[in-house]
Design goal:
The chain has a 7-stranded mixed β-sheet with strand order 1-2-7-6-3-5-4, with helices on both faces. Helix 4 runs parallel beside helix 5 and helix 5 crosses helix 6. It has 180 residues and is α/β, with parallel strands linked by helices. It has 6 helices and 7 strands; from the N terminus they run E-E-E-H-H-E-E-H-H-E-H-E-H. It has a single domain, classed as 3-Layer(aba) Sandwich (Leucine Aminopeptidase, subunit E, domain 1), CATH 3.40.220. The two termini are 17 Å apart. The chain is globular.
Length: 180
């Protein structure tokens, strides 16, 4: 599914984030930035050991913030690492922290003059954020950012599995309907 937001294109696809040829892919990282499971482990494996070496120099990352590295063996030139909230631990701050992940990742992309970014569904795996709650927060945050930042030309959500794709597709349709 695809939508125009300002001058940018917002895409939803089902696939593998490590295969994206965007300027940057976003890593749903843990606070250490030293690799882990899920998306984080897949990105570290695909990028090669240089990614871990560079991440060791960054001093970790706070929940809701983002940091950038090179992409190394990935098709993407950069990896933007962001730390999503652990759903049950974050409590009432979970939506605010999740929105911050997407916003800060896009701010880092803009600061580094990147034009295309691919996101996974942040915090919806091991961190337990329900897809039906996370998808509208992710999409609304990205759409709001794109309206005021024409330098970003493409944001692609690369969703793992049919459930994630359908949750994002429904949320995007709902948000586009509200905006119409």
């Amino acid at each position: 599914m695809e939508a125009k937001i300002g001058k940018a294109t917002l895409e939803l696809i089902q696939g593998d984030i490590t295969e994206q040829d965007t300027d940057a892919i976003v890593n749903a990282a843990n606070r250490s930035l030293l690799g882990g499971g899920g998306v984080d482990g897949a990105i570290h494996r695909a990028a090669g050991p240089q990614l871990l070496a560079e991440c060791r120099t960054l001093g970790g990352c706070e929940t809701g913030d983002a940091k950038i590295t090179k992409g190394y063996s990935l098709k993407a030139r950069h990896v933007i690492h962001t730390v999503g909230p652990i759903y049950h631990s974050a409590g009432k701050k979970a939506p605010e922290l999740l929105a911050s992940c997407y916003r800060r990742s896009l701010e880092v992309a803009s600061e580094n003059k990147l034009k295309s970014v691919a996101f996974p569904s942040i915090s919806t795996g091991a961190y337990g954020y329900p897809l039906e709650e996370a998808a509208p927060i992710a999409l609304r945050t990205v759409m709001d950012y794109l309206k005021n930042h024409p330098e970003i030309q493409l944001v692609r959500f690369v969703l793992f599995g049919k459930d994630a794709y359908h949750a994002y597709e429904k949320a995007l349709k709902d948000l586009l309907y509200i905006a119409a």
